[in-house]
Amino acid sequence: MVESQRETKGSNTKANKQFLPKFSSQKLGVQCNCMKTMVSKLKEGEDVKLQASKRAFNFDNDRELIIAVEDINQLLSGAWLNISILQVLILALYESWDEFDHSTNALGFMCPEMISETMLYSDINRVLLYMSQSMATLSSKSFILCPYFEKRHWILLVICLAKSQVYIFDSMQKKRNLMIKNQLNLAFRTYKAQNGKSKGTKLNWIAAQV
């Protein structure tokens, strides 16, 4: 199913409209070539829609993920990684794991769109509620993976609720004051309070070596 006239989310580059027919298929893997073939059949401005289970992203309702041709252009050319592509990856991982015994699944996810810098600026209360509810929903998981976008750069935050720790995977290896840090700390305290726990309400942030 396709939909027209949609602006690419999380994009900081202009799409190269001629990329799909011109880019050498020899430089792409099998899966990427399959993606390129599928997208090349779409008309300019059309989008791909995918149904996403509410459980994959800890939403209240099922939602549609919308992937624009520009999103895939930028991914395959190495120009940019849009939020929609990460959402599809998370959905694919979730559905793959869902085929196995849930008790062996040690990982959960937060939606990168819901915790992005843009959302923190536009609706911080909604983000806080989402993060604390996600922690409650995923409390049995060993780790919660949180792809986070700030200042045109992707960072992976990995939360371990049991140890009250957040691991920061940042390819730039720079000390930075992440906007999400105070809000994630507050969401963690809210999660703890709602579960009647007064001890260990402070997250320990650890920069991982990558």
UniProtKB/TrEMBL annotation:
Alphabetical list of InterPro entries matching this protein: Papain-like_cys_pep_sf, Peptidase_C48_C
Keywords for the protein's UniProt record, in alphabetical order: Hydrolase, Protease
Gene3D superfamilies found in the cross-reference section: Adenoviral Proteinase, Chain A
Pfam families, per database record: Peptidase_C48
Domain Ubiquitin-like protease family profile: 65-210
PANTHER family: OS10G0338966 PROTEIN-RELATED, TRANSPOSASE, PTTA_EN_SPM, PLANT
UniProt family annotation: Belongs to the peptidase C48 family.
UniProt-recorded name of the protein: Ubiquitin-like protease family profile domain-containing protein
Organism the protein comes from: Spinacia oleracea (Spinach)
Biological classification of the source: Eukaryota, Viridiplantae, Streptophyta, Embryophyta, Tracheophyta
Recorded name of the encoding gene: LOC110791935
